[in-house]
Design goal:
The chain has two domains: 152 residues, 3-Layer(aba) Sandwich (Aspartate Aminotransferase, domain 2); 88 residues, Aspartate Aminotransferase, domain 1 (Alpha-Beta Complex). The chain contains eight helices and 13 strands. Strand 4, helix 3 and strand 5 form a beta-alpha-beta unit. It is globular.
Length: 257
Amino acid sequence: MPPAAAVSPPATPPAAPAPPPAARPANVAPSPVREIPALTARPEVILLVTTGSQQALTLLATALLEPGDVVLVEDPCSLAALQAFGFAGARAVPVPTDDDGILPEALDEIAARERPTLLYVVPTFQNPTGRTLPAARRAAVAEAAARHGFWIAEDDPYGELRFEGEPVPNIAGLPAALPEGSRWNRPEGGMFVWATLPGGRDAGALLATAIGHDVAYVPGAPFYAGTPDPASLRLSFTTHAPDEIAEGLRRLAEAFA
């Protein structure tokens, strides 16, 4: 079934391009079938079925953005989202993050300075890092949107892929696969692990070596709207069985040796 993008307009439509002082969520989400009746029962919700969140993002960008508008994004951010906003002529401004996702204090400061039209966020199992934004921070993000009057595009393509409490073979094998001093997170669901190599290593430059060992990853640098981290990389664990993942980690260890 194609995903459904649920878009909630402001209570009072803006009469001018400047956003009104109210939080305005625009949810770009593959909504499970069980959620659709509840969504359509809410009069303020407009339900639009799309072929995926990328099409929904493109439609939102066309409807909400003018060339030169500011879009705030997590740093790092989904590469496809950065491309969609770039095609619309918007300026993507990165908001700093930590292991729990976007930093509300930084968001508030940057929003006051940049006067954004839109915040794009993947709060659950974020792409590319796999991080999940805690409830308190989600509330703080909504409060910042209300204060500064920008839209929130909440993308939720991975929320149903939760495996909390279940073993994740590739995370357990990372200490043996990555160079000593590497760092990585431990997502509770989604599709990705986010890692950082030590000692000034460049994940992009090392990719050709990894491919030579018949294993691959996605360098992290292109996911940043601001200054990239060349040592970062994204690993996916959703398309292979545990024994295949173990073999991939063994090859990765050889490539990084």
